[in-house]
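User: Need the bound-state model for inosinic acid:
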Amino acid sequence: MNKKIVLATNNANKLREVSAILAPLGIDVISQREAGANCDPEENGTTFAENAMIKAKAVYEAVGMPVIADDSGLCVDALDGRPGVYSARYAPKGMECAKLLDEMKDVPENKRHAEFRCVIAYVDGNSEFTFEGVCRGVIGFREQGENGFGYDPIFVYDGRTMAEMTDDEKNKISHRSMALKKLCDHFKVE
Ligand code: IMP
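Assistant: Bound-state model below.
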């Protein structure tokens, strides 16, 4: 019988992405709502790992089944790692790219390095793990591309923004898929 894992989110996109990666390993992923958990804990940690663990533990308390949670964001070198764990709250939804471009308007091309980071936390009552994925690129000078979400239109990887990539192309190189690959490797050796 397949192993069941609860994903600490009700976000349909995250659920689809994580399910697609874990299904070949015989792992069925269900949302926290499907598992009967109705919680939205305050993400008051100072690191992605702390926030991912806060979400995973809160849902584990509610459902008593293995849980994974993710926390992610954009860290810009020239801004000492900001917006980092505050990426989702940096600007009103849909305004984050414009605000960041404005904040970086005087930063020259060779100082615009940045990275997306993602931490996946796993909790099952006996064990707790975190797995981190990083994707390095640069911040462009304008928004380009229609796909993706958040900071994708200004995050340039290998000459194209993430918003100019298909889902499949982004999933090959993204911080989230790197973290999920580490999780997969962990389950493969179990
Ligand atoms: P959370 O992990 O759902 O809390 O998201 C954190 C925030 O980081 C999101 O709201 C986005 O603004 C940003 N972010 C995380 N991953 C990505 C990505 O793959 N593309 C663009 N923005 C992202």
